[in-house]
Amino acid sequence: MEMTNFWSWWIIILIVIHVVGYALLLQKTSKLKSEKHKPGETTGHTWDGIEEYNNPLPKWWFYLFVLTIVFTVGYLAYYPGMGNFKGVSGWTSEKAWKEENDAVLAKRAELFSTFIDKPIPVMIKDEKAMAIGERLFANHCSTCHGSDAQGAQGFPNLADDDWLYGGDADTLVASITNGRNGIMPPWGAALGDEGVNQVAAYVRNFSEEGQDEKLVTEGKAKFAMFCAACHGADAKGNHMLGAPNLTDDIWLHSYDSSMLEMVINDGISGQMPAHNELLDANSIKVLAAYIYSLTNE
């Protein structure tokens, strides 16, 4: 995007004034020094017992300033720096970035060509692909899922065989590409405090024996009414909806004396961001292959 002509000429004029002014100042100062200088003459300024001599600049220093001005003129002629003037080289930061990016993409395409056309279940046997996938995971996924891919509270463990949306190759690619939005609606208003406790007891009964039988029985009826649509009549979840299996002992948001009741009462949500604007299709496939390898080697 080019600047307006006014600002372009404003910058050009300021730069020319500065460069010409520096050259004239250097020339004038050097001339005055050579005309008036007397060996041993001081400026009359003394500091800490040291007198300041009125000597001209050393020649090497003077010529260094001259070279600086010459370099400035040459640089501004060759590269863009004078308003809208493009410079004789035609260089732009966008063009330089594109050339470098194209070179990187070409090199990466050459590297990927040895394995990218393989199906993901086959690709996981390629050590080079897995090394690249591991680096992609470290850069884009480890912040949430951990460097070991074992997750944390609210972030799924990718190294086990328990999947909210399925762990097959195509589903992994879709999850990374488009992201996921998981929503557990709040049921406190519909169930009431007693109903929340009953449903929690029923769910907890799958993995922890010794629950109150009356609460479990009443909770089972309410579960069928309010929860089975997502989690299934057998409470084993639904990959299409991302509804977790409640019959195993794997919990995304922890499992303690109050968490279950809180989630049922207040609901909870989670988001897996889409990566299709950060990674191209080939990189996503390699990343999906690495995650797939964690449970399918």
Describe it:
By secondary structure, the chain is mainly alpha-helical. It is 55% helix and 7% strand. It is built from 12 helices and 4 strands, in the order αββααααααβααααβα. The strands form 2 sheets. A two-stranded antiparallel ribbon has the order 1-2. A two-stranded antiparallel ribbon has the order 3-4. α7 (169-178) packs across α12 and α8 packs antiparallel against α11. The protein is elongated and about 110 Å long. 18% of the residues are buried.
Q: State the separation between the terminal residues, measured CA to CA.
A: 51 Å
Most strands sheet: 2 strands, antiparallel
- By CATH, the topology of the domain at 112-179 and 273-296 is Cytochrome Bc1 Complex, Chain D, domain 2
Any idea what the radius of gyration is?
A: 36 Å
Give a quick summary of the entry.
With 297 residues, the chain is mainly α. Helices cover 55% and strands 7% of the residues.
